Amino acid sequence: MSSMSAVRKIKEAAEKGANLVALPECFNSPYGNKYFEEYAETIPGNSTKTLSEIAKQNKVYIIGGSIPEKENGKLFNTCTIHLFDIDIPGGITFKESETLSPGNSLATFEVLGFKVGLGICYDVRFAELAQIYSKMGCHLLVYPGAFNMTTGPLHWELLQRGRAVDNQLYVATVSPARDESASYTAWGHSTVVDPMGEVIATTEEHEDIVYSDLDFEYIEKVRNMIPVTFQRRKDLYEVN
Questions:
Q1: Between these two residues, 102 and 201, which has the higher pLDDT value?
Q2: What pTM was computed for the model?
Q3: Is the model's pLDDT at 226 over the cut of 60?
Q4: Residues pairing with 77 in the sheet
Q5: From 144's CA, which of 155, 178, 190, 216 has a CA 20 to 30 Å away?
């Protein structure tokens, strides 16, 4: 997805009534260590300026996925991240830490009464992060991410459903479309999961828009039906 393609899709989603639009990880850049330096921008920069303008024009909130950001000689993703280093024998080897530096803070914001927590890609594997966001009062977790053809079919949906069920909130993931000619092939399948762990909106591997309505009252209903939020054994589960 290029910046211009992102603009078109944002406009299309806004015209159909979307209040919050989330873009994929590295939406302005091919995914791969050899590309990050070339496509890196400062913040503010061209991509963030464009997203700011399109948000104002269309009266919509935008989560700008991620872009490679250059600052003080280092490269970053714009969301709080764990760097993705993976080595699966017979599968895939990829080490973001060869080029990218880690973030050091969490990110939350509110949209129409919903509190949103942000992670990126590999972050979805860390249950602790989702639990912290839940304790901070988040109703929705959004993970722009680019799982690959090895980890995608194994864990993409499984991890989203796990984070949603454990914390009784909505989870949304936003993947780049699959490009089998690229050096890194993304799994695709952007998805929204509800607080009961049900997939309520998804797509295939091609470029598409996933729409979903989120219900604050349903979160409260689920938390009252299965009251793990209130019955958690803090005397046993909290580790000092």
A1: 201
A2: 0.88
A3: yes
A4: none
A5: 216
